[in-house]
Specification:
The protein has helices at residues 78-92, 95-111, 126-134, 154-167, 186-199, 211-221, 225-231, 251-258, 266-271, 279-284, 304-319, 327-334, 336-341, 375-381, 409-423, and strands at residues 3-6, 9-14, 17-21, 25-28, 31-33, 44-47, 51-55, 57-62, 114-121, 137-144, 172-178, 202-207, 239-243, 261-264, 288-291, 359-363, 388-393, 396-400, 403-404. It is an alpha/beta fold. The strands form three sheets. Strands 8-9-10-11-12-13-14-15 form an eight-stranded parallel sheet.
Length: 431
């Protein structure tokens, strides 16, 4: 389908940061253009009056199946949250329930302006099947753990490759995903690095999320988790590092030299008491910084607008500097930087000739955005996601005028409600 988007305001990158352009945008199949349609081309006109049209947000780290555990294990220490709250549910959750709760997470992401996400999951085929249904762009990895990728880790590795074989498409791609240094041996991490190079795949890992993780690694290995991965050859431009909260010594210098990407998760890291990633120092070193929500079990939303606001405000407060982590830097982290990490520079995260048509339409008449004194900064300091009225992914509307077109939300709610009753323990405060 071809579209002419007219009367709207476009968020584009200028020499001094993001700015607003008032011109028509043409969508040919799945690609943006500023060249008008010819007389023989058919198209639909989309009136974007009173709307901002901007690149879709890219959630660079999440676990969509965890949406079932939203507000489930709150206000407890990190390891209690993980081992007493999350892991028992993960062990009992069946694949069908994981599919429906993944669709719930994708419903939330679409409604709040996310068009692409990077996922680490546990249930073979469910996340990609849900992404396929939702029409979302996704980079998905089955979590890998163990001592040897080809022995005790072989089952998970096979599942990762099987779902890649079955579901990979223009919209859905796959990422090798060793879980963390404390759940994967040095051998397995090295094996994943070799498989990544051999198969031309990105790789992702949780890293330096908590003080305990770093202290345990120093005690056992005599080096930080970053230094460990660097010495194993795991860090390179195809590596996505989630969290990186507890940085020590030359950790940031090693990451910068390697070309790896860092994904900061402000809400999750703060809520679990793990601290605040030194994102200003990361940017000053020229590290590619992106933003993720983490899963709804620890965030407790998948709303990138909230994450963008938190990232900026927390850094301003921590550094007592109102100029720290400005809106332009935050928007870029949620769009262009993410595209670069995914090998999609110029194709995602921008409004540009030849870019893929992943777009969101934001209603500027919503009270939170009115009056429109500064549209770019409002995206960081005023928007809360509810202002998103339409979402286009790969040239196809998946939500239009706030109506979901690819997901039967009522059906999703019914199945997730059943899954919650079957898999979650009540604590007397629920329902």
């Amino acid at each position: 389908m071809n579209y002419k988007i007219t009367n709207g305001r476009l968020l584009v990158r200028g020499e001094d940061g993001y700015e607003i352009s008032r011109e028509d945008l043409f969508i040919r199949d799945n690609t943006m253009s500023f060249v008008p349609f010819g007389p023989s081309e058919s198209y639909e006109t989309v009136d974007a009056s009173d709307h901002l049209v901007m690149p879709g947000l890219i959630n660079m780290h999440t676990h969509v199946y965890m949406t079932l555990m939203r507000n489930y294990a709150d206000d407890v220490p990190f390891h209690q949250w993980l081992f007493d709250g999350v892991m028992p549910v993960e062990d009992s959750l069946d694949p069908e329930a994981a599919y429906w709760t993944s669709l719930l997470g994708m419903t939330e992401m679409i409604r709040t302006g996310t068009t692409c996400f990077v996922d680490m999951h546990m249930y073979c085929g469910q996340s990609p099947k849900a992404a396929e249904q939702a029409g979302m762009r996704a980079f998905i990895g089955r979590g890998l753990v163990g001592e040897d990728l080809y022995k005790d880790g072989a089952k998970r590795f096979k599942e990762a490759l099987d779902e890649k074989e079955e579901y990979e498409s223009d919209l859905i791609r796959f990422v090798l995903s060793p879980h963390a240094i404390y759940s994967c041996s040095d051998l397995l991490i090295g094996q994943v690095e070799q498989e990544s190079r051999k198969r031309g795949m990105l790789k992702q890992i949780h890293l330096s999320e908590s003080v305990k993780e770093v202290e345990d690694c120093l005690a056992a290995k005599g080096k930080t988790p970053v230094a460990l991965l660097d010495d194993l050859g795991f860090l390179d431009e195809h590596t996505i590092l989630a969290h990186c909260v507890q940085m020590q010594g030359d950790d940031l210098d090693r990451i910068k030299k390697s070309g790896a990407t860092i994904v900061t998760n402000p809400a999750s890291n703060a809520k679990l008491g793990n601290g605040f990633a030194p994102t200003l120092e990361m940017l000053r070193r020229g590290i590619n910084l992106c933003i993720g929500t983490d899963g709804a079990a620890s965030n407790n939303t998948l709303n990138m607008f909230r994450e963008m606001s938190l990232l900026s405000l927390l850094q301003k407060g921590l550094h007592r500097d109102p100029t720290a982590m400005g809106a332009d830097e935050v928007i870029k982290a949620a769009t262009e930087n993410a595209a670069a990490a995914l090998g999609m520079s110029g194709k995602l995260g921008v409004i540009r000739e030849g870019a893929l048509a992943d777009l969101i339409f934001i209603d500027l008449n919503e009270p939170s955005l009115f009056p429109d004194n500064s549209i770019p900064t409002s995206l960081c300091y005023s928007a809360n996601g509810s202002e998103v009225s339409s979402v286009m992914i790969d040239g196809r509307f998946v939500m239009r005028d706030r109506q979901m077109l690819t997901i039967d939300v009522k059906n999703v709610y019914e199945h997730v409600r059943e899954a919650a009753q079957n898999h979650l323990k009540t604590d007397g405060r629920k329902r």
